[in-house]
Amino acid sequence: MQEESHAAKEVMGLVAGKPRITLVGMLYVLLYLGLPVAALGALLDLGIQLVFGVCVGLWCVF
User: Fold this and answer.
1) For the chain, how big is the Rg over CA atoms in Å?
2) Is the separation of the CB atoms in 49 and 58 below 8 Å?
3) 15 - beta bridge partners?
4) Residue 42: CA atoms inside 13 Å, Cβ hemisphere, count?
5) CA 33 to CA 39: how far, in whole Å?
6) Percent of the chain with pLDDT strictly greater than 90
7) SS3 for 15?
8) Phi and psi at residue 21, in whole multiples of 5°?
9) Which helix (H) or strand (E) holds 31?
10) Phi/psi of residue 26, each to 5°?
11) pTM for the whole structure
């Protein structure tokens, strides 16, 4: 059975650090998950405003 450890490992004689999320990884998550969710929410808010005449979006605060 293969060991599934997240400890530091030796690669070509050098000790590699533990796996971690980087700044670029966080930006990718924000771009590919956060942006579409925010866009869908904005479209839903706009649809409710057009159909019912009630502003429920974030832009109503400003």
Assistant:
1) 22
2) no
3) 10
4) 7
5) 10
6) 45
7) strand
8) -80, 140
9) none
10) -65, -40
11) 0.59
d(CA 46, CA 39): 10
Dihedral sign (CA 47, 53, 57, 59) = positive
Q: Return d(Cα 17, Cα 40) in angstroms, integer.
A: 38
Q: How sure is the predictor about 18, in pLDDT bands with cuts at 50, 70 and 90?
A: confident
Q: Could you tell me which of 30, 32, 48, 36 has the C-alpha nearest to residue 58? A: 48
Tokens of 41: 């929410």
Outline where 7-53 has alpha helix (H). 23-29, 35-52
Contacts of 17 (CB under 8 A, 6+ apart): 8
